[in-house]
Design brief:
The protein has 499 residues and is mainly beta. The chain folds into four domains: 32 residues, no CATH class; 94 residues, no CATH class; 86 residues, Jelly Rolls (Sandwich); 201 residues, no CATH class. The chain contains two helices and 28 strands. The strands form six sheets. Strands 1, 2, 3, 4, 5, 6, 7 and 8 form an eight-stranded mixed beta sheet that branches. Strands 9-11-13-17-18-15 form a six-stranded mixed beta sheet, with no helix packed on it. It starts with 23 loop residues before the first helix and ends with a strand. About 1% of the residues have low confidence.
């Protein structure tokens, strides 16, 4: 036997003894056994062919030469350098990359990993031939669509048995993300304290429905032209922003598609800008800024005033949340006693009421304006009418002056307001001992001002009492039989509107 199975060689024959006869057959057998043992050993000159696995028992090969054939062993240095999976610059064309590995391969098996320097940028679907044929290059399981491979970049691919999976997408950084029609982040983007600088897109002409989301060349756009904008084209997703800068004057319309500050239309000016946010793909909220720095909507202040001098309906303007109502009723008419030596009294003023009302849930309200009472003609004056704002507050009209008394008509009374005032009473007549000394009483003063003057006897054309002057004031009384009482003034309702 040459070896015992554990690699130990034992001479199968006992030692020869000097001075004894040696059997030639035993010598031949011994020499044959030694020859077999040497044959099973590895020759240092490389003649031997190993016929079984060699257990190294934790030992290592040292001083290996660099392998250069597919069946050669690889040194640690070659493994670290990727010597047989890295090719310098590929020799193919754009979208058709070719590398020649050394040693060459004829099949591209699953798990094969290669790297190379791309000579050309990709423009779409691409292939790589590493020696086993041109197989598709994919990124995340899909064919390339654009500039995923940049010229001069090092590309690493792993074959999955069918196609090359690119694990180093050189052209998909943020600098070139615009070339990907549907770029997506895998998580939150940490800018590491750096800025993200946006580009300005091409200007967009104003239109009834203006397209500010259709372009892909920038988030900031100039709006040209003067066409009224009623809506924007749909955004591709909720949450998109656009900054728009107006180059001229046009109307930006508040409505179902566009929500504007103050819920009212805006007339733009050159240099004004706005941020448009897509609350839904077809509904947008606008933050608007004027180039001259003025506010688009006054913050919490008085916005507008409506004045009613006749009965009608108040309709709440957009954005109004509170109103202050100031109202006065109609003034009473002055009297005409038709007495030769007696003047007539003036009519009373209408009452006044004032209240601040929350109109958040109100869209309209009835406004009633009391008419002034007619002056007396050979008799008493007529009382003024009541003014009111819905059921919130009201005031009664001033009383007409009586023909049977020198005392003026009583003032009307406010009700329902935070402030309720009684109108001024009409003035009493001034009577003398003769017809030439009589004067009519002055009309009662309202919250807004004085009433009509009384008539004066002896002044041709001035015997009549004057009509009430300020809203809700009373008419003046006549001087004598030559004149008539003055009419009371109509009331008024003033509505101050606040946001």
């Amino acid at each position: 036997m040459a070896r015992d199975g554990n690699g130990t060689y034992t001479n199968p024959y006992p030692d020869f003894v000097g001075g004894t006869v040696i059997s030639s057959s035993e010598v031949d057998a011994n020499n044959s056994d030694i020859a077999n043992a040497l044959t099973q050993s590895i020759a240092v000159d490389g003649q031997s062919v190993v016929t079984g696995n060699i257990p190294m028992a934790g030992k290592k090969f040292t001083g290996l030469g660099a392998g250069n054939a597919a069946t050669d062993s690889l040194t640690l240095g070659q493994a670290q350098a990727g010597a047989y999976t890295f090719q310098g610059t590929d020799s193919g064309a754009a979208d058709a990359y070719v590398i020649a590995l050394v040693p060459a391969i004829t099949a591209q098996a699953a798990g094969l990993r290669v790297s190379f320097v791309a000579a050309n940028a990709s423009t779409g679907a691409s292939t790589l031939n590493a020696g086993g044929g041109a197989d598709a290059i994919e990124y995340q399981g899909a064919a390339l669509t654009g500039a995923e491979i940049a010229a001069g970049s090092t590309i690493v691919c792993v074959h999955d048995g069918t196609a090359w999976q690119m694990v180093s997408p050189s052209g998909l950084g943020l600098a070139n993300v615009v070339d990907d029609p549907t770029p997506e982040l895998g998580g939150a983007l940490n800018t590491n304290g750096k800025a993200i600088n946006e580009s300005e897109g091409a200007a967009v002409a104003s239109a009834t429905t203006t397209d500010i989301f259709g372009g892909d060349d920038g988030n900031t756009l100039h709006i040209t032209g003067t066409t009224t904008i009623v809506d924007f084209t749909d955004a591709s997703s909720v949450g998109q922003w656009r900054k728009i800068i107006f180059d001229g004057i046009l109307t930006l319309t508040h409505g179902s598609g566009i929500t504007l500050p103050g819920a009212a239309n805006i007339t733009t000016a050159a240099g004004d800008y706005a941020f448009v946010y897509a609350d839904a793909v077809d509904a947008f909220t606008v933050l608007y800024f004027r180039a001259d720095g003025t506010a688009v909507v006054a913050s919490g202040g008085l916005v507008s005033v409506q004045t009613f001098d006749a009965t009608g309906t108040w309709n709440k303007p957009a954005g109004i949340t509170r109103v202050r109502i100031q109202l006065v009723a109609g003034g009473g008419g002055g009297a005409d006693r038709n007495a030769a030596d007696d003047g007539s009294a003036g009519g009373g003023a209408g009452g006044y009421a004032d209240e601040i009302i929350d109109v958040t849930g109100t869209s309209s309200e009835t406004v009633t304006v009391g008419a002034g009472g007619a002056g007396g003609v050979s008799g008493a004056g007529v009382g003024g009418g009541t003014s009111s704002f819905g059921a919130y507050l009201s005031a009664t009209g001033g009383a007409g002056a009586l023909a049977s008394a020198a005392r003026g008509g009583a003032g009307g009374v406010g009700a329902g307001g935070n402030t309720n005032l009684t109108g001024g009473s009409g003035g009493a007549a001034s009577n003398g001992v003769s017809n030439s000394e009589t004067c009519g009483g002055v009309g009662g003063a309202s919250y807004f001002g004085g009433g009509g003057s009384g008539g004066i006897n002896g002044l041709v054309g001035h015997e009549n009492g004057e009509d009430g002057a300020a809203p809700g004031s009373g008419g003046g009384g006549s001087a004598n039989t030559g004149g008539d009482g003055g009419d009371g003034a109509d009331g008024i309702v003033i509505i101050l509107e606040y946001v």
